[in-house]
Write a structure and sequence with these properties.
Two copies of one chain form a homodimer. Chain A has 242 residues and is α/β, with parallel strands linked by helices. Chain A is built from eight helices and 13 strands. Chain A has two domains: 125 residues, 3-Layer(aba) Sandwich (Rossmann fold); 105 residues, Rossmann fold. A five-stranded parallel beta sheet of chain A has the order 5-4-1-12-13. The longest helix of chain A is centred in the middle third of the chain and has 13 residues. The first copy, chain A, starts with a helix and ends in a 10-residue tail after the last strand. Chains A, B: Belongs to the HAD-like hydrolase superfamily. Chains A, B: It is an enzyme of class 3 (hydrolase). Chains A, B: It is found in: Cytoplasm; Nucleus.
């Protein structure tokens, strides 16, 4: 905690990444990273405002928070900024009806979204659901649209499970971009809008905030571009190359 | 044939794409494109040298040629330049032992290649074999290599089956490039080496040759960059946008 405490001097708010910082996902739900349950508890006892800012798109917020609570974390749904709810807001604002290429675990977040006659495609970290058949269907939906809109929940390259490194949504986003000749809209880190909405939720300005994450691009680079400080942990997908 | 005949004036050799020009692949093997069986027969009766130059990487040359012969085409294995045999030559020259992410139909082309303890990944149009599990395995192999080498058999965006447009290998190549932070080596059109090897096989110089294909990038653009003329057919994946 010594290093954290120093870097936190002068800041009013902390954005915490979840996967790779609080826990590593994996079979049976995953495991808490050593010291992180206590670190969150200490942050919450401090005068600092805390917000969890995740690109997790395999699970609904409810499922994710339930898992973290079982691992011992002090966290509630209302404290989490996640890409699926942010996407739903965008879909409603723009009258978009998505074809979903997502993990079954996150589908419930889209329960009140009109999905008839799709006019866009939403992809998230779909894991095993990234079959050729499902990718091809998403591709065909995009190719049939006059103005194809592809929304990607994050653009991570990979993440770490207890069993090893796993392909994240970013590659699949690139595959559809290339095949269709389009550019995706990314909802989630490192999009500035996403960081801003997390800061807004705790009423903290960017220059008063620090982002703590394991992703040198999504977490650290993204936060710095928004005027925040950032700290990369040496857990999760951290590599000495970073 | 009138338009072809005009454009062919002054040329000594013709490179013919296969998928989308001679036939559309699909269930049951596919169907010949109207007029193409007779067009190939006429070309072969002419003084022009003819070479088939394909990015087909789902089937072995033997299987592809067998299919085309059953559809009525005058074609033999020795007349076909295809990426799998070209890749095998590169693997041997450079002492590369591939992890294959390919369609079962083309696996036999790699029968005499050493695949123990892989030091590169070869991907081709794998169709249904582009599962998340298989993509993740290829990703993990690359991430474990000190100098990751990814060879892609073509980089097509999509192709046309009788049932509709289908994702080609290009998107999956981009996915692995992005996830691993590397650049693939492409064997096949539009790589200049590939066109040159096809021209060499018929002893024709680039300026004396014309490429006939349905892909504005892989066939037309690639051939023109090599100094050949090119003609885009209005079959296969041709779109009026081209």
């Amino acid at each position: 905690m010594a290093a954290w405490a120093e870097r936190l001097a002068g800041v009013r708010g902390v954005l915490l990444d979840i996967s790779g910082v609080l826990y590593d996902s994996g079979s049976g739900g995953g495991t808490a990273i050593a010291g992180s349950v206590e670190a969150v508890a200490r942050l919450k006892r401090s005068p600092l405002k805390v917000r969890f800012c995740t690109n997790e798109s395999q699970k609904s917020r409810r499922e994710l928070v339930g898992l973290l609570q079982r691992l011992g974390f002090d966290i509630s749904e209302e404290e989490v900024t996640a890409p699926a709810p942010a996407t739903c807001q965008i879909l409603k604002e723009r009258g978009l009806r998505p074809h979903l290429l997502v993990h079954d675990g996150v589908r419930s977040e889209f329960d009140d979204i009109n999905m008839s006659n799709p006019n866009c495609v939403v992809i998230a970290d779909a894991g095993e659901s990234f079959s050729y058949e499902n990718m091809n269907r998403a591709f065909q939906v995009l190719m049939e649209l006059e103005n194809p809109v592809l929304i990607s929940l994050g653009k991570g390259r990979y993440y770490k499970e207890t069993s090893g490194l796993m392909l994240d949504v970013g590659g699949y986003m690139k595959a559809l971009e290339y095949a269709c000749g389009i550019e995706a809209e990314v909802v989630g880190k490192p999009s500035p809008e996403f960081f801003k909405s997390a800061l807004q939720a705790i009423g903290v300005e960017a220059h008063q905030a620090i982002m703590i994450g394991d992703d040198i691009v999504g977490d650290v680079g993204g936060a710095q571009q928004c005027g925040m400080r950032a700290l990369q942990v040496r857990t999760g997908k951290f590599s000495p190359m970073d």
